[in-house]
Amino acid sequence: FRGTLANLYTGAEANGYEIVPSRPGQFQTARSPVKAEKRDRIDGDLTDQHTRDFLDCVGSRRTCRCDLETGHRSTTFAHLANIALATRSRLEWDAANERITNNDEANELLHYEYRRPWKLG
């Protein structure tokens, strides 16, 4: 994954990751706020770890490692990738308004018909 501040490298066969700060652009300062990090292996079942963290947070009232906003933004990325594949197009995303700005057909795929009795308020 390529970001504006850093890149995240991971492999399907490796159970780890590496974060590499991005080199500054022409109008950025030389220091990146992101620190390099490498982890060769993540031990244990990640679902169990997230569940345990959530339950601990219910009791302590601290913010979860993957709070609601983080979870929403990370799944948005995956949904947009699927929509780009379905429409065979490059998408431009307006995160503030949560809309695709360059493809009306793709915008139609952002929502779906809910099963009764569920509805989006």
Write the layout of secondary structure elements.
Elements: E1 6-9, E2 17-21, E3 37-39, H1 46-60, H2 68-87, E4 93-94, E5 99-100, H3 104-108
Antiparallel strand pairs: 1-2, 2-3, 4-5
Provide key terms for this protein.
121 residues; alpha+beta; 3-stranded antiparallel β-sheet; two-stranded antiparallel sheet; 3 helices; 33% helix; extended
Describe the structure.
The structure is a single chain. The protein has about 120 residues and is an alpha+beta fold. About 35% of the residues lie in helices and about 15% in strands. The chain is built from 3 helices and 5 strands. The protein has helices at about 45-60, 70-85, 105-110; strands at about 5-10, 15-20, 35-40, 95, 100. The strands form 2 sheets. It has a 3-stranded antiparallel β-sheet with strand order 1-2-3, with no helix packed on it. The chain has a two-stranded antiparallel ribbon with strand order 4-5. Strand 1 (about 5-10) and strand 2 (about 15-20) form a beta hairpin. The radius of gyration is 18 Å and the shape is extended. The model has no long low-confidence stretch (mean pLDDT about 85).
Could you tell me the radius of gyration in angstroms?
Answer: 18 Å
Structural class from helices and strands?
Answer: alpha+beta
Number of strands: 5
* Low-pLDDT windows of residues: none
Could you give the order of strands across the largest sheet? 1-2-3
Helix share, percent: 25-40%
Strand content: 5-15%
Order of helices and strands: EEEHHEEH
For the largest beta-sheet, the strand count, sense and barrel status come to: 3 strands, antiparallel
What distance lies between the first and last C-alpha atoms, to the nearest angstrom?
Answer: 33 Å
Number of helices: 3
Q: Tell me, rounded to a whole number, the average pLDDT.
A: 85
The protein's oligomeric status is: single chain
* Broad shape: extended
